[in-house]
Amino acid sequence: MENSQLFLIGAALGGAVLGFVLKHLQVESAKRRLKEEADRIVQEAKEEARVIQVNAKNEALETRQRAEADIDRKRKDLSREDDRLRQRRTELDKRTERLEERDQALNKRQSSLDTKTNELEEQRQQIVKQLESVSSMTKEEARKVLMDEVERESRGDMARIIRAIENEAKEEGDKKARNIISLAIQRVASEHVSESTTSVVVLPSDEMKGRIIGRNGRNIRSFEQAAGVDVVVDDTPEAVTISSFDPVRREVAKRALAKLVTDGRIHPASIEKTLKKEQDEVEKAIVEAAEQAVFDAGVPNLHREIVKMLGRLQFRTSYGQNQLHHAVETSRIAAVIAAELGADVEIAKVGGLLHDLGKAMDHNVEGTHAAIGAEFARRYGINPTVVNAIAAHHHEVEQESVEAVIVEAADAISGARPGARRESLEQYIKRIKALEDIANSYKGVEQSYALQAGREVRIFVKPEVVDDLEATRMSRDIAKQIEETMQYPGQIKVTVLRETRAVDFAK
């Protein structure tokens, strides 16, 4: 039993020793394999490093060769550039030398020129002194004479050029304007001639004057107070005169007095009754005349108050021309001109019809009729362009549209056409005298004459005082002053005559 145990122990120990030996042999074998593998890896790394080193050496060698070749090329380029710069420097040095030589030559020439200039200046001074001695004038006096002569010739040339330009512009403008104006007048063909609202009441006999005056002047005072007019009873046979600044009031008084004279019963009660009745009749006549004028002019849809105010022009005249008829005619002419020029025909028609609207109220309101009429039209919603045409037709404000210019032209055409207007002898004489007074107020005017019934003023100037250019300016200034200070129909021609006469006597 013991032997078997020992055998087992021995076998176990032998197995353990054998296992240890086998384990050791396995470890040693693994170490050898690892060492061989490590040696192989190291050998491969060395071989790879050797290859890399060889490649790096080759690349370094190639890089060095390329760098050396590049350096050689740049060295050659620098050498060539250096040669070129050296050659350029040489050329610049030569050019600088030539310029210095030329500068020296120029300095010598300048010195010579300065010397000659000084000699010429001395000779000129001597010549000037000789000329002053011969002409008995100093240099300043001679210069003044020369400048005066040049200025005189230049002013004459300017005047000729101005006249030529003006004549050319007038010829072209007149030709076109004549065509348009003649077409406008021909198409309108107004049947209205100049007429005047009279303030004279014809009586059947001079005995009627006493009945008009009444006992102690009772009738005439009542009539004047109720009608707001003055009744002039003078030596005029079978007629009395009614005077009032209000044309409508004068018309009412004229009609009422004519009715009273026809009836024969003249006393304060009948006077008031007749005046009231005629006032209503005149108001109706005003509205009817205005409606007819609006229809004739082709201007519908006007405010009722504007129509009523327009009708009052039926009893207003200017230089004998009925103002309501003048308004209709102006509207028609403005429409034709606007159509020919491509402007707004409706605005031109309304502006022409209402341009003198202020004359229906200028005796009651302060201001010019153009400004009054424009304000009245603006108050009742008239187009602002039409309002400007009304206000600007006498140049009191700036004209803002071509229609405003057309209205002004149509107004002038209607007033200036043959037979449109007339004026009294007293007004005619005053206008003629005013024209001559304006002309004579200018310096250098010798004589002035108003010709062709005041349509032309001819002015003779002193030739030694007024030259050609000044004569042109004078004609413009006189025409402008006439426009600003006078009222007249049509246009006035201003002619300035400058004439030089040489007179001598044979003895």
Short summary:
The chain is mainly α and 507 residues long.
Key terms:
single chain; 507 residues; mainly alpha; Hypothetical protein af1432; three-stranded mixed beta sheet; 8 strands
Portion in strands: 5-15%
> In order across it, which strands form the biggest sheet?
1-3-2
| CATH class (first level) name of the domain at 200-416 | Mainly Alpha
Q: In sequence order, what are the helices and strands, one letter per element?
A: HHEHHEEHHHEEHHHHHHEEHE
Number of strands: 8
Largest sheet: 3 strands, antiparallel
* Whole-number mean pLDDT: 81
Give the overall form.
elongated
Can you lay out the helices and strands and say which pair or pack?
Blueprint: H1 2-135, H2 139-188, E1 200-202, H3 207-213, H4 218-227, E2 230-232, E3 239-243, H5 247-263, H6 268-297, H7 304-311, E4 317-318, E5 321-322, H8 323-341, H9 345-354, H10 369-379, H11 384-391, H12 402-416, H13 425-440, E6 445-451, E7 456-461, H14 468-485, E8 493-498
Parallel strand pairs: 7-8
Antiparallel strand pairs: 1-3, 2-3, 4-5, 6-7
Helix pairs in contact: 2-8, 4-6, 5-6, 6-7, 6-8, 8-9, 8-12, 9-11, 9-12, 10-11, 11-12
